[in-house]
Amino acid sequence: MTDAGTDAELSTLDRAVVNAFQGGFPVVERPWGPAAAALSQRGVDVTGEELLAAVRDLDDRGVLSRFGALVNAEEIGGTATLVATHAPPERFDEVAETVNAHREVAHNYEREHPHLNMWFVVSVADGEAGGASNGGGGTANERVDELLAEIESETGEATYNMPKQREFHVGAKFLLDGPIPEGDLDCSGLGPDVTPTDAATLTPAERDLVVEIQGGLPITETPYADVAEAIGQPTDWVVETIKRFDAEGKVRRVGVIPNHYALGYTENGMTVWDVPDEVVDDVGEAVAALDFVTHCYRRPRHEGVWPYNFFAMTHGRDEAESEARVRQVRDVMADYWDVTDDDWDTLFSTRILKKTGIRLDERADAQVAEDA
User: Is 277 exposed, middle or buried (0-12, 13-18, 19+ CB in 10 A)?
Assistant: First the structure.
């Protein structure tokens, strides 16, 4: 249990909402009543109307980034990858402007590192490679290669592509002192039974749904019905499809997405580790089990420049807490090999250079079945 130390004035109900519904929110036509009933069973007496008002207020105050379904972009189609580069201090803003000008760059951060001080995420859809001259049609990975070559030519700096080789964990939870302190309330079992599919493409209606919900659900009495009206589909279909997407992994979770900065978690450190290849899978699973680790991946090394093959993102409310959490990560790793100070580093972000989000509409468009 943690107390976020936020400056926001959070009531007991506010804290219950943040703790309880960072996943597992009901996917039913009228979700607020069942959600309120689940809270009441855990000692938080609230009506559906009061719960709706509380979530709306938290959103209005910026305590939430949004409410709704967190879409897993990679399961929708295309690819996203993490890229690092060097921006000389005297040209840093120029390089940032050049990188950010590419619409495929979704996020870009300045990070503390003696050489690789700029880190950005590239998101592309299948079929984007090749350019207008030959009609495109290539794979998303081919487009990544093309884009990085363009950026290198424009900036004069090498880029280092670090795609995920294995994802151990993605699922930030920022829990507060208050009701439901373990964040273990789950209403995802409510609603219709669904059968996951292994379809690699989307129907046109599914594409419309992904685009409509990517920025969140409306905070209304009937959020799923309102989405259904917006895309011209039956409410039952929207409910069943979102629930099926959740089961298939196209949606990571449904619920409130906290603004962790508003909750006091202002320190985020990307810890990177040179883990022996023979134990990296075991290490990844062990580190992923730490509740304060929000992202955890295996990525490639780059010989002579980047020796690290394991990334773990941690968040803290101040520098001391962040350092303590990094020590906990190291302690877990020490169970698997003899970790030295040369085996790891922490790259704290010092500036957000761009944050526009993944272009889900284009990636969804590329996945629509031709015969749909």
Answer: exposed
Instruction: Say if residue 368's pLDDT is above 70.
Output: no
Note the pLDDT of residue 8. 53
> What's this model's pTM, rounded to 2 decimal places?
0.76
Predicted confidence band at 193 (pLDDT cuts at 50, 70, 90)?
A: very high
pLDDT in tens, 208-254: 999 999 889 999 999 999 999 999 999 999 999 999 999 999 998 99
Interacting residues of 45 by C-beta distance below 8 A, sequence separation 6+: none
Give per-residue pLDDT as tens, 116-151. 999 999 988 766 555 433 344 568 889 999 999 999
Which residues touch 224 (CB under 8 Å, ≥6 apart)?
27, 28, 29, 31, 217, 235, 238, 239, 242
Instruction: Tabulate helix, strand, coil % of the chain (nearest 5).
Output: 35, 20, 40
Distances (CA, A) of 223 to 13, 132, 186, 242, 342: 21, 40, 19, 12, 51
Residues 369 and 372: their CA atoms lie apart, in Å, by 5
Q: How far apart are CA 314 and CA 330, in angstroms?
A: 12
Per-residue tokens: 146: 């093309």
Element (H, E) at 241: helix 235-248
> In the chain, where do the E strands start and end?
64-71, 79-85, 105-111, 118-124, 159-162, 166-170, 251-258, 267-273, 293-298, 310-316, 344-355
Q: Which two tokens stand for residue 56?
A: 């709306």
The crossing angle, in degrees rounded to 10, of helices 360-367 and 204-213 is: 170
Q: Does the structure show a pLDDT above 80 at 363?
A: no
Distance CA 316, CA 172 (A): 12
Looking at residue 368, what DSSP letter applies?
A: B
Q: What span, in angstroms and rounded, lies between the C-alpha atoms of 178 and 10?
A: 10
Residues 6+ apart with CB under 8 A from 91: none
